[in-house]
Write a structure and sequence with these properties.
Blueprint lengths: L2 H18 L5 H7 L5 H33 L3 H20 L10 H6 L5 H14 L2 H13 L3 H23 L1 H39 L3
Length: 212
Amino acid sequence: MNVGIVKSFLYMYAGLFAITNSIGAVPVFLSVTHGISLRERIEVARKVGTTVVVTLTVFALIGQWIFSFFGSSVDAFSIAGGILLFKMALEMLSGEISKVKMGDVEEEEAEMITLEDIAIIPLGIPLISGPGAITTVMLYMAKNQAVLERALVLVTIFLIGLTTYFVLLSADRIEKTLGNVGIKVLTRMMGLILASMAIQMIINGIKSAFGI
């Protein structure tokens, strides 16, 4: 297999994994699914994974149209997206779920919705596939024009959805193993990775826009 393709895949997967931060979402998942049966929890986890795949795939496919419709360049979007991701990273470095992904209103509404809706709001959107993840997949598609490269982006999205499903399925075990402190430490580590990615996105956008 082409080494470049493998490196590209690992970069995209690691980036999306850090941004979606499904492990950091474990406490929220356990909270909103408290008191339901194991079968129902499995179903919720499956729907969350499906929601993540569908949401990110749709925005990945229509991203180019959005750029054209609003007259925005990929470079400008890269700079703006980098700033957004950096804000998320700073909040993750404090060990908290980013408010860019889920605000106080969404948290309050989570208590008012039915079990069928929980998988979509707030878990699937905006907790896991939030603005940061959406921005990232749109940039991945815009930067990769070859058919194989774009197919790789879609495969990455599918694997992120699958990862999300298995992480939430193992939520009890993860919480017992890591504890709240462990989850916060891991969230901070992902925040650091995300911060470096965000800075690189901003640098690349500026260099490309000004021909540096």
